[in-house]
């Protein structure tokens, strides 16, 4: 048995020993390979009786309305009332009145109008509404909210206690807007840096993902029904980070053992921490080891119902991804009996929600969906809503509602930035930046909050934003000027118009431009090399390097991208990942003094442009766990420069 499986088994035995017995379900040999776990929440007979009475009093359309989740752009509060809608979401880039600069007052007013509408139906018992939002690195949709480092950087902090504090702060940011459900954390165990969502993964190490899952769920959910608590979402179930060639929404070809020991590691921890919602992955599972192709996760009854709900004891609710049901063969945006029968309880159907309700009612009446499945889904939805306290007090009753100050988590985010950046090289003591010395800053990313924050920032893709749109935070340029004195810091985005010899140190800030989801994929066979994807960064580095002045490079990236050519042109090199709005945290460690580097890679850093994972044959330049500091530096020197082919030859396994 592999070491990983032994460790996993040991921790699962501990989990399994401490929760009430599960209901008995027939267990197939395949399902029996999964650990038998139990919900950490003791059954509440009174609550279950209350739910049963409500469900019994509902019509089929009312039940299906509870299962339907439109986007706020495509439904009005009165339609929520009219169609008995149970939850809404704001997808990335949806704001009240489509105003990017909407205030917390605007957000909480809209949330309250939806909430009141849901309580104004003609049902015998009114059912409160849930609103879900992608608060994946702070409440990132909301102007003025502090945005934390993306998960790839937080993984480098190796600090679960920090993660819990970030979860707590994020929950309070979300409650300030009247919202009570965060579509976070992502529990992907990122395996291939071609994947456009690599930055949403904490690590390629399942054990770190598990530790962080516990921390983030506890941080977000607190006591689940508290004033500053929100529902968390374990996503995307299952195997989103392990698809073939890192294709987003692609095919995961893991064996069942790999799913159990690696992809699911964060879920055991999240379930044990009491996570109340799970979001299904767009990806599919093809168990090539047995020749059985299970297809799209949105139609996978074995993994959603037999494993997650029955074997692992999950008693919360399962939500689909955005129009995810249409990817199931034979399904469409507005109809998918297979997804409902697989065990999905809430269908995220942003626009086509009217047709979905009608079609699903037809599927029930014509026997393609058993009404008992509908009742189970609604029971789970009501269970989560009751546990969250929404039946006892409206979301708007929170002391955080409308409180703009709750959006400010700058000090915590600045600490997170300090801990999440990794010093890969510091030859010739190029760092720290000495005060009073003349600094030349180059690179377009130096003054770009967009490149600093990445995707899922104000907009879905993180694009179409200016620095002014963020209303808070600091670029690295601004932070260095603050730390070292305006007069000591000169900026030239492309390195032109200045004489490098006039300066003591050059800081070159390099970076990816923002992307989210599949837009960030680097499709096989394209090499994954920063300088080929962003040639302007190589040009600016060449313009300042080799002039007898130390060059400190800082790289913003959503993935560990091959960069030996850039590292060789630099005396010092910092992997900053996507640090968020608080550039001051970077300046803190670059200028040294009180703060030293402590970040250590949570993914391997590649040694060639076609090494995109941790498979045999992939060249590793810096191993997981690598990170220098002022206290523990060692020379790196010139790194090998293997030829980068026009196209990579070997696919990842
Ligand atoms: C997106 C993402 C998911 C997100 C959802 C709602 O497509 O896959 O992570 O929570 O839609 O925005």
What does this entry look like structurally?
With 653 residues, this protein is α/β, with parallel strands linked by helices. It has 2 domains: 45-68 and 92-406, Glycoside hydrolase, family 3, N-terminal domain (TIM Barrel, Alpha-Beta Barrel); 421-622, Rossmann fold. Helices cover 33% and strands 11% of the residues. The strands form 6 sheets. It has a 6-stranded mixed β-sheet, with helices on both faces. Residues 16-21 have low confidence and may be disordered. Bound molecules: alpha-D-glucopyranose.
CATH 4th-level superfamily of the largest domain: Glycoside hydrolase, family 3, N-terminal domain
Which structural class best describes the helix and strand composition? alpha/beta
Roughly what percent helix? 25-40%
User: Based on DSSP secondary structure assignment, what is the total number of beta strands?
Assistant: 19
The poorly predicted ranges are 16-21
The main β sheet shows up as: 6 strands, mixed
How far from one another are the termini? 21 Å
Report the total helices: 23
Computed over alpha carbons, the radius of gyration is 25 Å
Q: Using the coordinates above, name the CATH class of the largest domain.
A: Alpha Beta
* Distinct ligand kinds: alpha-D-glucopyranose
* Strand residue percentage: 5-15%
Query: Can you tell me the number of structural domains?
Result: 2
- What does the overall shape look like? globular
- Overall average pLDDT: 95
Q: Identify the strand order in the major beta sheet.
A: 12-17-16-15-13-14
CATH fold field value of the largest domain: TIM Barrel
CATH architecture of the largest domain: Alpha-Beta Barrel
